Amino acid sequence: MGWLLNAKRATLIAAALVLTFVGLLPVFLMIVESFIVDGGISLTNYIDVFGNTRTWALFRNSLALAALTTVVSGTIGVALGILVAKTDLALRNTLAIVFSLPLLLPPYVLAIGWFEVLGRGGLLARLFGVGWGEVTSRWLFGLPGAVLVLASAFLPVVLLLTITYLRGVDPALEEAARLASPWPSILQRITLPLIRPGILLSLVLVFLLSMGEFGAPAFLRLGVFPVASFTQSSAFYNFGAATAAAAPFIGIVISGVLISGRLLRNKAYSFRWAGRDHAIRIPLGRRSPFVLFAVMTLAVLLVGVPLSGVLWRGASTAALTDAIQRAGDSAVRSFVYATIAASVLCILGFFLAYIVHRRALLAWWWLDGLTLFLFTLPGAIIGIGLITLWNRPSTNWIYSSPALLILGFVTQYAALGTHMILAGFSQLPLSLEEAAEIAGAGWFRRVFVILVPLLRPATLAAWAAAFIFCLRDLSLPLLLAPPGGDTLTARTMTLMANGSPELVAALSLLSIALVVAPLAVLAVGWHAWSKPA
Amino acid sequence: MRKLIWLGFAALALLGCRASRQNTVTAYVSEDQVFSEPILKDFERETGIRVNAVFDTEEAKSTGVMNRLLAEKGNSQADVYWANEPVRADVLRQQGISTPFQPSNAKEIPAQFKDPEGYWTGFSARARLIVVNKNAKLKPVSILSYVDPKMKGRTVTANPLFGTTTAQMAALFALWGDEKANRFLDGLKANQVKLSTGNGESADFVASGEFDFALVDSDDAVSRVRQGKPIEIVYPDQSDGEAGVLILPNAAVLIRNGPNPENGKKLIEYLVSKETERKLAFADCAQIPLYPGVETPKEIKPIEQIRTMKVNYAELGAKLQVIEPMLKKWAGY
Q1: What's the pTM?
Q2: B98 and B81 in contact (C-beta within 8 Å)?
Q3: What ipTM did this prediction achieve?
Q4: Domains (range + CATH), chain B
Q5: Candidates 1.25.40.20, 1.10.3720.10, 1.10.510.10, 3.40.250.10; CATH matching A1-40+321-527
Q6: Which of A202, A330, A409, B146 is a plausible cystine mate for A341, CB 3.0–4.6 Å?
Q7: Number of A:B CB contacts under 8 A?
Q8: A343 vs B10: CB contact, 8 Å cut-off?
Q9: pLDDT tens, A305-360?
């Protein structure tokens, strides 16, 4: 028994150490090195960065972009979430899927789509004249365009969390309130206050993700922190300056993590996503067609238009053939890397989720916060940290191989595996494991015979989410992929330099197919597997 | 069990990546991928040697892979650096990153486009030309037109911190001396010259009429002409006594302590061959061959017909390192 207890602790401590070593150590080392200039301790990097007016202009841009994106996606996402989860709106589930599609794609694909519509030579310019294109292009290549792209990219975060939390509300509370109050009042006084932590969490996540986004602002030439940080690291390889430039951002990320931790602390919130949808629904009545029309119009605008833009430019046999010839190998590599990383993330996430849910180690809260912290850090920062740590002859076997990129993915997305499996844990009665323990089952047996099978849906969902995020990531592959081992996202970015618009659009279509096709196969496979014989 | 199978695949994939390194060459490439990759693919087909390439993004301009080479000085990953201009190639010589190699295929390339000791070898060049909107009222004939008060607010240039514009600045500092070059930079600010993110964007701004002219690379100019954009190409400073056009050849560099130096040499021989020059001349990048007698497309002048700026690229490399902090300050970085 004592051995088993030790084995359990050893496994959990090993998982905690893996996250700390793989994730935190590079970031820590990078921060330390930013204080070393010409062999001595110096604040030069920080003095240079904070004394530069450009830094504060970037800070303003980043804050404005993140705030506006949060407001737009928060407003639309919560409203849509209520319509999908609480009303009898027709086609609500289909619409939820349509609005969630952008989450599957790298945000720069949406930016390319909008460019094909609003750019100087875009669809709008062709339809209404060059003058239109000039105006819309100027609008797109600036803050409004970046907000539009990121709001549509991150709206699904708010939408899905709102839906999830709304489905977790006990219907009995709303039913009791209905005896005395109309729906608007129930929503305002009961439902929304109950899901406030979920909404706030989604807003914090959108804010931090928008602050950390690199691809879309880079494409739209908007000067923000992640782009500046990437330039400092990738163009100048000035890691000290890049780290110093990221310092205000790291401060914001830590604040965001503390806020989200405070929001969720002591909220014994139970997701009900495995069960049937028992929510009582608000009848829209005669307003139904108008609401449906408005929501469908929004779906066309936010999702249909950019995807049509990419299709319009890139869906020709010649362009697609060129894209496959130039980037087919990268697409295969993207798939392999994402598959490996998602599997590692699920294994690590399982044990980290166990630690957090069962409070199995004293540092459970710290590990929980660390995963969120790493999730919201810009990829360039994590990339610099990993290069700083591993770029030496003794560790060249890691540095020169795809393992470095896999480590990057594991660092950045540990939160996905951990938190999605954690949601699964919250649905399992503790008594199952306790009963098995009383019956004499050891810890590993309880894990593999009871917990792993019962957590299969949550683990599969975590795997799919991790797979998508690894597949769509851009800044980590740009910095960490080995020579000749780039991913499709990185290849698309390097081919953008003087590549034809048709090729770039076709590469975007390839990115979409690369995400959607495996997920469709996974969904069909899961459906067939889970169907009773 | 399934996860174990996946892990097995993962291990195999990683091993596969390492096993396939035997007959390979690793190239870091600053030339745009759309133009350089077909050449590398041809090399693979003809020699059977696999090229593992790292390309620069638009954001990293042509500085990304060079700085990566500097960062990997004690842990070299690359065999060859294909630079899109020789100034940064010479910085690598000065930093002890490169090693001499004089390819036999480059014997006919004029000496001014090669490092005398063989630390880099030039091939297929770009010229720094001016593109002018056809509707512009004033036509520039010199790079000094940027500081002509009549052009105030009507001109654009790529950020001098990146790409070939840095080399242009280093050339001006070397040619004019610090005082005149600094006056020129101040003049750019006073004349409200717009900074773009790259030469391609500068050319697009001029083509759309937002600005009257821009100093760009010949490939950016030719591609816009081929697209039917309303621009004209001007070869600046061509009169007697004037500075001439800055020519920036690509440069092939052998990296010191690279993993596969012999394959690296083979790749360099291939890059500096007449055949590669011909391919790059007739590709969309329309680069100017340095070998006498290699055909050029109709949109560009052969090298013999251009009054070229007399520069020492090694001197420019040293100058670049000196002026970079100042350029950063000037550009607000």
Answers
A1: 0.82
A2: yes
A3: 0.75
A4: 22-125+248-304 (3.40.190.10), 126-246+325-331 (3.40.190.10)
A5: 1.10.3720.10
A6: A409
A7: 130
A8: yes
A9: 999 999 988 899 999 999 999 999 999 999 999 999 999 999 999 999 999 998 88
